Amino acid sequence: MVETTQGLGPAGVFLGTFTPRLDEKGRLILPAKFRGRLASGLVTTRGLDRCIFVFPLDEFTEVHQRLRKAPLENKSARDYLRNFLGYASDEIPDKQGRILLSAPLRQYAGIDREVAVVGMGSRVEIWDAQAWQEYLERGEDDYAATAAEVFDDM
Q1: How far apart are CA 75 and CA 86, in angstroms?
Q2: Which class is domain 10-129?
Q3: What gap in Å lies between CA 124 and CA 116, rounded to an integer?
Q4: Are 117 and 5 in contact, with CB atoms under 8 Å apart?
Q5: Sequence ranges of the domains in the chain
Q6: Residue 9 forms beta bridges with which residues?
Q7: Is the pLDDT of residue 87 over 60?
Q8: Is the pTM above the cut of 0.85?
Q9: Which residue in 44, 49, 55, 47 sits closest to 83, CA to CA?
Q10: E runs forming strands in 7-60
Q11: If residue 89 lies in a helix (H) or strand (E), which one and from where to where?
Q12: Are 17 and 117 in contact (CB under 8 A)?
């Protein structure tokens, strides 16, 4: 596994990109820097942009509480919940820090063996390594413009 940055930052924030490989059973060894925060349990689910989201249990509970407030009459909310919760799986890493990525999640994200595990602050994203590289290359030109847009809204 290659570490490109350190891992768990201040106040348990997930940082950095790691490039482990899945084993033949679809298990992922979590980066050592992330294991402490995820040791008591986590939830994997369908993310956005063809990645897998990994939430510590407390973060998943907060996200779920926000989603519960969406009205049942809202079709978009129902559709999102079906995808978000329908693909969700709660896991406890084994003693080697491994978790199983379900076949439907691996298929959704196009993951075979090579992955990128990316710290995203309150969650982790798991990408097919090639898809992550392509995403970075496509977005490089827009990075500064996006930063201006994001920080102008704050």
Answers
A1: 16
A2: alpha beta
A3: 10
A4: no
A5: 10-129
A6: none
A7: yes
A8: yes
A9: 47
A10: 17-18, 27-29, 42-46, 52-56
A11: strand 89-91
A12: yes
